[in-house]
Amino acid sequence: MSHPDQKIIAVYQGSFDPVTYGHLDIIRRAARLFNELVVGIGVNPEKEQLFDPQERLELLLPHIRDLPNVRAATYDGLTIDFVRHCGGQVLVRGIRDLADLSNEVKLATLNRLVGGVESVFMLANDQHVLTSSTYIKQIYELGGGDLARVAQLVPPNVARRLAEKLGRPRT
Predict the structure, then answer these.
(1) Cβ distance 74 to 44 under 8 Å?
(2) pTM value surpassing 0.85
(3) What are the pLDDT digits (tens) for 114-161?
(4) Domains and CATH numbers, the chain
(5) CA 1 → CA 4, 71, 117, distances in Å?
Protein backbone atom coordinates (compact mmCIF):
# COMPACT_ATOMS: atom_id res chain seq x y z
CA MET A 1 0.00 0.00 0.00
CA SER A 2 1.32 3.43 -0.89
CA HIS A 3 1.72 6.22 1.63
CA PRO A 4 0.31 9.71 0.96
CA ASP A 5 3.83 11.12 0.58
CA GLN A 6 5.04 8.35 -1.73
CA LYS A 7 5.73 9.40 -5.30
CA ILE A 8 4.06 7.11 -7.82
CA ILE A 9 5.73 6.84 -11.21
CA ALA A 10 3.67 5.31 -13.98
CA VAL A 11 4.82 4.19 -17.41
CA TYR A 12 2.61 4.33 -20.50
CA GLN A 13 4.27 2.02 -22.97
CA GLY A 14 3.55 1.52 -26.65
CA SER A 15 5.05 1.57 -30.09
CA PHE A 16 3.27 4.86 -30.95
CA ASP A 17 3.86 4.23 -34.66
CA PRO A 18 2.52 6.87 -35.13
CA VAL A 19 1.18 8.64 -32.06
CA THR A 20 -2.57 9.28 -32.27
CA TYR A 21 -5.08 11.54 -30.57
CA GLY A 22 -6.16 8.44 -28.64
CA HIS A 23 -2.63 8.01 -27.23
CA LEU A 24 -2.47 11.69 -26.34
CA ASP A 25 -5.81 11.48 -24.54
CA ILE A 26 -4.56 8.60 -22.37
CA ILE A 27 -1.31 10.51 -21.67
CA ARG A 28 -3.17 13.62 -20.51
CA ARG A 29 -5.60 11.67 -18.35
CA ALA A 30 -2.85 9.50 -16.80
CA ALA A 31 -0.76 12.61 -16.08
CA ARG A 32 -3.56 13.79 -13.78
CA LEU A 33 -3.54 10.51 -11.83
CA PHE A 34 0.16 9.95 -11.15
CA ASN A 35 3.00 12.05 -9.76
CA GLU A 36 5.08 11.29 -12.82
CA LEU A 37 4.30 9.64 -16.14
CA VAL A 38 6.97 8.24 -18.42
CA VAL A 39 5.90 7.52 -22.00
CA GLY A 40 7.99 4.56 -23.13
CA ILE A 41 8.38 4.22 -26.87
CA GLY A 42 9.25 0.61 -27.55
CA VAL A 43 9.61 -1.76 -30.44
CA ASN A 44 6.95 -4.35 -31.15
CA PRO A 45 8.72 -7.30 -32.81
CA GLU A 46 5.38 -8.53 -34.17
CA LYS A 47 4.83 -5.39 -36.26
CA GLU A 48 6.77 -3.74 -39.04
CA GLN A 49 7.59 -0.23 -37.84
CA LEU A 50 7.08 2.76 -40.14
CA PHE A 51 8.95 5.28 -37.98
CA ASP A 52 12.13 4.50 -36.08
CA PRO A 53 12.02 5.06 -32.30
CA GLN A 54 13.74 8.45 -32.45
CA GLU A 55 11.26 9.69 -35.08
CA ARG A 56 8.35 8.52 -32.92
CA LEU A 57 9.83 10.38 -29.95
CA GLU A 58 10.18 13.56 -32.03
CA LEU A 59 6.55 13.28 -33.17
CA LEU A 60 5.37 12.93 -29.55
CA LEU A 61 7.45 15.60 -27.78
CA PRO A 62 5.54 18.71 -28.96
CA HIS A 63 2.35 17.26 -27.47
CA ILE A 64 3.68 16.71 -23.95
CA ARG A 65 5.71 19.92 -23.50
CA ASP A 66 2.92 21.51 -21.48
CA LEU A 67 2.72 18.55 -19.07
CA PRO A 68 5.38 19.15 -16.39
CA ASN A 69 5.11 15.66 -14.89
CA VAL A 70 5.42 13.81 -18.21
CA ARG A 71 8.58 12.76 -20.01
CA ALA A 72 9.21 10.36 -22.85
CA ALA A 73 12.01 7.99 -23.77
CA THR A 74 12.73 5.23 -26.23
CA TYR A 75 13.79 1.77 -25.15
CA ASP A 76 14.31 -1.74 -26.39
CA GLY A 77 14.01 -4.99 -24.54
CA LEU A 78 11.41 -5.97 -21.98
CA THR A 79 8.92 -3.38 -20.84
CA ILE A 80 9.25 -4.47 -17.21
CA ASP A 81 12.99 -3.72 -17.38
CA PHE A 82 12.21 -0.24 -18.73
CA VAL A 83 9.68 0.30 -15.94
CA ARG A 84 12.29 -0.65 -13.34
CA HIS A 85 14.88 1.61 -15.03
CA CYS A 86 12.43 4.53 -14.71
CA GLY A 87 11.65 3.75 -11.08
CA GLY A 88 8.07 3.00 -12.08
CA GLN A 89 5.56 1.00 -10.11
CA VAL A 90 2.63 1.01 -12.51
CA LEU A 91 2.02 0.35 -16.20
CA VAL A 92 -0.78 2.35 -17.80
CA ARG A 93 -2.58 0.60 -20.64
CA GLY A 94 -5.30 1.99 -22.89
CA ILE A 95 -8.26 -0.26 -23.60
CA ARG A 96 -10.40 0.28 -26.70
CA ASP A 97 -12.51 -2.87 -26.75
CA LEU A 98 -12.90 -6.43 -25.45
CA ALA A 99 -10.14 -7.73 -27.71
CA ASP A 100 -7.71 -5.21 -26.17
CA LEU A 101 -8.88 -6.15 -22.69
CA SER A 102 -8.37 -9.86 -23.27
CA ASN A 103 -4.82 -9.35 -24.52
CA GLU A 104 -3.96 -6.75 -21.87
CA VAL A 105 -5.14 -8.95 -18.99
CA LYS A 106 -2.69 -11.64 -20.12
CA LEU A 107 0.16 -9.13 -20.38
CA ALA A 108 -0.72 -7.56 -17.03
CA THR A 109 -0.64 -10.96 -15.36
CA LEU A 110 2.77 -11.72 -16.89
CA ASN A 111 4.16 -8.29 -15.96
CA ARG A 112 3.03 -8.74 -12.37
CA LEU A 113 4.31 -12.33 -12.17
CA VAL A 114 7.68 -11.77 -13.86
CA GLY A 115 8.38 -8.16 -12.93
CA GLY A 116 6.23 -7.27 -9.95
CA VAL A 117 4.69 -4.41 -11.96
CA GLU A 118 0.99 -3.59 -11.58
CA SER A 119 -1.14 -2.46 -14.52
CA VAL A 120 -3.86 0.18 -14.60
CA PHE A 121 -6.32 0.08 -17.47
CA MET A 122 -7.79 3.27 -18.85
CA LEU A 123 -10.76 3.09 -21.19
CA ALA A 124 -10.44 5.00 -24.44
CA ASN A 125 -12.81 7.91 -24.91
CA ASP A 126 -15.66 7.17 -27.31
CA GLN A 127 -14.16 9.25 -30.12
CA HIS A 128 -10.91 7.22 -29.97
CA VAL A 129 -12.29 3.69 -29.63
CA LEU A 130 -11.66 2.83 -33.27
CA THR A 131 -8.33 4.62 -33.55
CA SER A 132 -5.25 2.51 -34.08
CA SER A 133 -1.89 3.30 -35.64
CA THR A 134 -2.32 0.34 -38.01
CA TYR A 135 -5.69 1.64 -39.23
CA ILE A 136 -4.30 5.14 -39.69
CA LYS A 137 -1.54 3.91 -41.99
CA GLN A 138 -4.06 1.83 -43.96
CA ILE A 139 -6.50 4.73 -44.28
CA TYR A 140 -3.75 6.93 -45.65
CA GLU A 141 -2.32 4.35 -48.07
CA LEU A 142 -5.58 2.85 -49.31
CA GLY A 143 -7.40 6.20 -49.28
CA GLY A 144 -5.17 7.73 -51.93
CA GLY A 145 -2.96 9.73 -49.58
CA ASP A 146 -5.76 12.03 -48.49
CA LEU A 147 -4.49 13.75 -45.33
CA ALA A 148 -7.97 15.01 -44.49
CA ARG A 149 -8.98 11.42 -43.80
CA VAL A 150 -6.37 10.99 -41.08
CA ALA A 151 -6.46 14.57 -39.76
CA GLN A 152 -9.13 13.74 -37.19
CA LEU A 153 -7.07 10.79 -35.88
CA VAL A 154 -3.56 12.25 -35.58
CA PRO A 155 -2.07 15.69 -34.88
CA PRO A 156 -1.01 17.80 -37.89
CA ASN A 157 2.73 17.18 -37.38
CA VAL A 158 2.09 13.44 -37.46
CA ALA A 159 -0.12 13.65 -40.57
CA ARG A 160 2.61 15.60 -42.41
CA ARG A 161 5.32 13.08 -41.44
CA LEU A 162 3.04 10.22 -42.41
CA ALA A 163 2.66 11.76 -45.88
CA GLU A 164 6.42 12.31 -46.16
CA LYS A 165 7.18 8.76 -45.07
CA LEU A 166 4.54 6.97 -47.12
CA GLY A 167 4.53 9.30 -50.10
CA ARG A 168 1.63 9.61 -52.45
CA PRO A 169 -0.02 6.21 -52.89
CA ARG A 170 -0.59 4.92 -56.38
CA THR A 171 -4.17 5.15 -57.56
Answers:
(1) no
(2) yes
(3) 999 999 999 988 877 778 888 888 888 888 777 888 888 999 999 999
(4) 9-126 (3.40.50.620)
(5) 10, 25, 14
